[in-house]
Amino acid sequence: MVTLQLQDLGARYGQHMMISGVTTAAFSGGQVVAVVGPNAAGKSTLFKRMAGLIDGPGQVILHDSKKGAQGISYMPQGLNGSARLTVYESVLLARKQLAPRWVVEDDELKLVDDILAALGIGALSFRNLGELSGGQQQLVSIAQTLVREPEILLMDEPTSALDMHRQVQVLNFMRDLARERQVIVFIAIHDLNQALRFADQVLVIADGTAHGSGASHDVITEGMLRTVYKVQARIEQCSRGQRHILIDDIV
Question: ABC transporter domain spans which residues (predicted)?
Fold first, then answer.
């Protein structure tokens, strides 16, 4: 089972440090990790550093990985691909970029078909990317990430443009994927109630560093909400053992 740990991780643009000192315990395959924090806290920068897209001090430590750094797949907020490509072409191209070859194998076509079907966008296969709504484009971006079959997924706000039904569908799918394939799924997300519902672990980024990490019920607390988000809130127990945040006021 793959594990990932961050050791004193930092990221810089030029000479300016954007995040620093991010250290966590090891995250394990099968877990969904919600990465939360205020706007501009450094969540996207952290993902880019973990994916090796920007430089900085510290280490991303992998154990029991079959693919090494190549097994880390980053999904940015924007959609990759020319607006003239069809949905199917853009997802297949994301797959072929792993090991460019002219020949397209039958199992690659089946993988694309299965992922599009699982995300409920098979009917969009031959629509051009430029014709899609923002929510549809976001689902295609998720498909482009999944088709790479990574060991570790870094998903930057994958549900931000989706309606409530699609949000729950995608988060359920990602949780099932993590458990069935023993993948570590990191999801940057603003909705803390969704984080409480779907995440096994939570990493809080605030002021360019880690404010805390661990099991969701240990990290998302009334004290954290007051300190990091500057809100007075209550966390109440709901049906099926779920916890829910109720905001009373700003601090």
Answer: 4-232
Per-residue pLDDT of 62-109, as tens digits, reads 999 999 999 999 999 877 767 789 999 999 999 988 776 778 889 999
127 token code pair? 């629509």
pLDDT digits (tens, 9 = 90+) for 149-178: 999 999 999 998 899 999 999 999 999 999
d(C-alpha 124, C-alpha 86), whole Å:
8
- CATH no. of 73-150: 3.40.50.300
8 Å CB contact between 159 and 146:
no
State which H helix or E strand residue 183 sits in: none
CA distance 229 to 206: 9
User: pTM (2 decimals)?
Assistant: 0.93
The residues facing 16 across adjacent strands are 13
3-state helix, strand, coil in the chain (%, to 5): 35, 30, 35
Q: Report the alpha-carbon distance of residue 67 to residue 227 in Å, rounded.
A: 39
Report yes or no: 144 and 138 within 8 Å, Cβ to Cβ: no
Q: Which residues contact 99 (CB under 8 A, 6 or more apart)?
A: none
Pair of tokens at residue 231: 């809100």
Q: What tokens appear for 167 in the block?
A: 């949000």
| Range among 13-17, 74-78, 119-123 with highest mean pLDDT value | 119-123
The first and second tokens of residue 147, run together, are 């088709």
